[in-house]
Amino acid sequence: MLKEERLNYILNEVKVRNRVLLYDIAIKLNVSEDTIRRDLKFLDEQGKIKKVHGGAVSNSFHIYNYKEDDIYAHADKSQIGRKAISLIKEEQVILMSGGTTNLELARLMPDHFPLTIFTPSLPVALQLLEHPNIETIFVGGRLSHEAQIALGGDTLNTLAQVKADVCFLGTGYLDVQEGLTEFDWEVVQLKKSMIRASKRVVALTISEKLSSIQRFKVCDTESIHTLITELPPDSPTLGGFQKIGLEII
Asked: Residue 130 falls within a domain, yes or no?
């Protein structure tokens, strides 16, 4: 594979997934890790991604203030956010994970609704502060430099004391048979805790992330109650999820 082809593949994966592992890219492209390490360094120097230990993250994953141009597939994520808002009722207690789709949902939250929202995501928490009627509770802990979310025992202990009406779960890898998966073990534990702490779990994802699998399992697909994508509910792409009982919006 030519270098230009590798770079284009890496850029697309980073845009879609927000975060990628050097090892995974090397396996998928059948090249050495040193080759991918040099590619990531080159893309970082070009300002197209941010190279981190063991991989890379998108520039949109490293924002403290909302920047529409930095968010991949912004129009689709905005549509998902508007669909998600239709599920929200006044006075609800809500859990929100990280990710740029949830960041967009946080931006679109209705100002007139009194809500209590817990989140371990620093960017999402900061965005929620723009809404005066939302009580924002940051679920603290050790902050991940890459994902800007709180992880570890303190975070999980706090979530064990919460029973939210609904959890809006950012989704990186979702497959009908294999369920929700991730490549970061600590993120897996965080999402498991968020699911246990919620009466209803709503997965938010652009359709490009469907039918994809990573190494660590968060939950079976049936543990998710509702799936929201940018696609219409009757799209053939979503048929498998509908067949096993998920509500599709």
From this structure: yes
Q: Which domain holds residue 40?
A: 3-57
**Do residues 248 and 204 touch, judged by C-beta distance below 8 A?**
no
Helix (H) or strand (E) holding 202: strand 201-204
Amino acid at 38: R
**Encoding tokens for residue 79?**
């549509």
Integer CA distances (angstroms), 211 to 49, 51, 62, 228, in order: 25, 26, 26, 15
> Do 182 and 78 share a structural domain?
yes
pLDDT, tens digit (0-9, with 9 covering 90-100), for 134-192: 999 999 999 988 789 999 999 999 999 999 999 999 998 999 999 999 999 999 999 99
Tokens, residue 99: 């990710």
- DSSP one-letter code for 203: E
Quote the distance between the C-alpha of residue 210 and its chain's center: 13
CA-to-CA distance for 131 and 75, rounded, in angstroms? Answer: 22
